[in-house]
Amino acid sequence: MENSLPSKIIDRTSSSYKIKKFLRKNLGGWLIMLPGLALFTFFVWKPLFQNIILSFSHTMGMKAVGFAGFENYKSVFQDVFFIDALVNTFKYLFWSIIIGFFIPIILGILLSEVVHFRGFFRLGIYFPSIVSGMAVAIMWSYLFDPNPGAVLNQLLARLGFKYSGFLSNPKLTIPLIILTMTWRGAGATALIYLSSLQNISNSQYEAARIDGANWFNRLRFVTFPHLMPTIKLLFILQVISVFQVFYEPMVMTGGGPNGASVSLLLLSYNYYQQMELSKSAAVAVILSLIIIVLTVIYLRLSNPNKREAKNV
Amino acid sequence: MFKALQSKTNGIFNYSDYKKPVYKIVYCIILFFLFVAALTAITPPLWLFISSFKEASELTSVPYRLFPKVFDIGKIVSVWKMLNFGKYFLNSIIVVLGAVVCSIVFNGLLAYSFAILKPRGYKFFYGLVLLSYMIPAFSSIVPLFLSIVDLKLQNTFIPLWLMFGANAFYLMMMKNYFESLPKSIFEAAAMDKCGAFKTFFLIVLPLSKPIIGVVAIFTMTAAWSDFLLPYLVLQDDNMMTVIVKIYNLKDTMGSMQGFGPDKLLMVLTISIIPQILIFLIFQKRITASAYAGAVKE
Q1: Which of A71, A150, B209, B254 is the most core-located residue (most Cβ within 10 A)?
Q2: pLDDT at A310 over 50
Q3: ipTM beyond 0.90?
């Protein structure tokens, strides 16, 4: 028995031992990462990479053939619809900030202040978020029926207003689309603000009271500073999601009237349907670049302290 | 009514403010605004429900009538039968169930390895995952669709299930949760020579029920509502999900005999009903999960 012992003693400095130890430590982790990474590769990273390649290629049918340089980008920039879509994207952003950004903040604060009917208010306001985006878009396109006999026009008439063309009026198309998006999304966002507000400790308000702060100052010096990180985060998330607006114009207007509501993603999709894959890819790449650049600028602007701290 | 306000100690306004009549009026204004908001949220679906029982000609009538002339509940059944809608419901349910399983298992495994195992090189992949947060998921859907065609997975549910297994948002939520689990559990599991997969399924998942519930609810809603990839992948009518079928109906409505806008509204109503039921059953969990969405920061 004792004679067999030396053979079991392992040379801990040998390279084979080190490799074994290294494998034992990491192999399980790698194996576990494998399925998830495979899926991320197939569904996210590979398509992204292929898309960039595609945007620099000539295409035949569904296949990429040959390098095209910036030709696809050039022809995209010469397309009138692309300029429309680019301008529209910023119009979407403008209206979404005007209509969609402040309502959830106000709702969140009101929800945190109310004592009565709490459950009813929360559920009611959250309710539109559970309905699928497609169903919401179709439903609102019927509510915005420009026919004088349709529901909203009849309501306008009773209130003494003129009939409206709603989505067929180019000036109203984008604000109305943003309105439906806000109708669907505001409740869920308001609940996120509410959950942040519920973390404010009462002593902060008490301290403000003792210092003689009136309600407006309590709102300004206690509530808002606490809410600010959430506001910043949700702002950039909203910008990112507005840039990707797609279902609503596709279903409600088809991008019309006359390109007044076409978005970059819708344009990319239209190119795809016309079998112009490389142009479709080029638009998608441009959109991704815009989003990345805006996000980086925004993060830089909203966290100036971090950089200063590094420099010191 | 104002009695409840006497015990309100937190918030911008508290009991001491509400002793003054001015603030009682302010409180009434708060209540009023919230009622308006809740009504705005609920009214359009109610309108949809009521209008879907109308005849096509009643949708645009002068003077406008809110309610249909006859409230025939049988219309639900007749539209359902006409379109054989059960088929699409079943497809949607299959898609949702598979998506929930994939979402929890695959994102969970990756989150587990990022949060606990941390094998060499994990930081690189973690960085890649974070990067995919920023890039619009839609933007590369065409190449994705082409590789699905290459693998001959068109008109199957497989890509729609697996797609939910690669979601940076769910992954981050689970990673944050796993990091909060006590380390001693994993040390004990390692002592018992419990393999990594075994540890995940037998120890980590059962301990993570709250976050699994949240991810499951998010995935359920997202998978039920998902449109673009299912629309591209499922072209066979027998495989279509409810949402794809609805879009299809809207698109081809003009050329369909006996299918008008009133019936489309009825189909919309039918498609929303299960979502309302799930909402009512899980309401506490769903609103709680909306909070959990905030954890991602």
Answers
A1: A150
A2: no
A3: no
